[in-house]
């Protein structure tokens, strides 16, 4: 039964590859039948679990409520989408975002729930590091606006260079990943090679210091919460 549950969870998540907009499109009827089959299996698994669990315990378990709500939302969305399709009205399958609920909340997914809870418990503790990083990013963006905004520089495509504050924030945020380093730095470097010092300082502070600190905080807190959960499970 556990293997069958995992199979239909995987099948339900995989439907996103075949539904519009799809990587490998299949007819709507085919994907609908598969989704209804998966939902019926989930409902049957939930019914079986209710038969072997005390009534009060079953209805107090948040996981069971989440599964039932996800099934109801998926069926409602499928029905609405099918009706709108009959009238040639374009719509979006918004219920796709609830499909991971089945992966997390079934009784067989205990290890996944532990990992999910560890991530959830870690988030508040990394907020301070994230806020410091965002503050540094905003300050460097303000410095970039003051340094380059009044010099009428242009990108290789002829667009204004570092004249809009929000665009600067986004460009420097992507620069943290070093994905677009030449595109961001070259207009300023071509104007004056001394401006390279600004980008070197930015990469050192935000990429090498803050990202390393961020990763260390995430790893240590995640490991701590996971140990606590595993210790409580053993007890």
From TrEMBL:
<feature type="transmembrane region" description="Helical">
    <location>
        <begin position="26"/>
        <end position="44"/>
    </location>
</feature>
<feature type="transmembrane region" description="Helical">
    <location>
        <begin position="194"/>
        <end position="219"/>
    </location>
</feature>
<keyword id="KW-0472">Membrane</keyword>
<feature type="transmembrane region" description="Helical">
    <location>
        <begin position="65"/>
        <end position="84"/>
    </location>
</feature>
<dbReference type="InterPro" id="IPR005821">
    <property type="entry name" value="Ion_trans_dom"/>
</dbReference>
<dbReference type="GO" id="GO:0016020">
    <property type="term" value="C:membrane"/>
</dbReference>
<dbReference type="GO" id="GO:0005216">
    <property type="term" value="F:monoatomic ion channel activity"/>
</dbReference>
<feature type="signal peptide">
    <location>
        <begin position="1"/>
        <end position="16"/>
    </location>
</feature>
<keyword id="KW-0732">Signal</keyword>
<feature type="transmembrane region" description="Helical">
    <location>
        <begin position="126"/>
        <end position="145"/>
    </location>
</feature>
<keyword id="KW-1133">Transmembrane helix</keyword>
<protein>
    <submittedName>
        <fullName>TPC2 protein</fullName>
    </submittedName>
</protein>
<dbReference type="Pfam" id="PF00520">
    <property type="entry name" value="Ion_trans"/>
</dbReference>
<feature type="domain" description="Ion transport">
    <location>
        <begin position="6"/>
        <end position="224"/>
    </location>
</feature>
<feature type="transmembrane region" description="Helical">
    <location>
        <begin position="165"/>
        <end position="182"/>
    </location>
</feature>
<keyword id="KW-0812">Transmembrane</keyword>
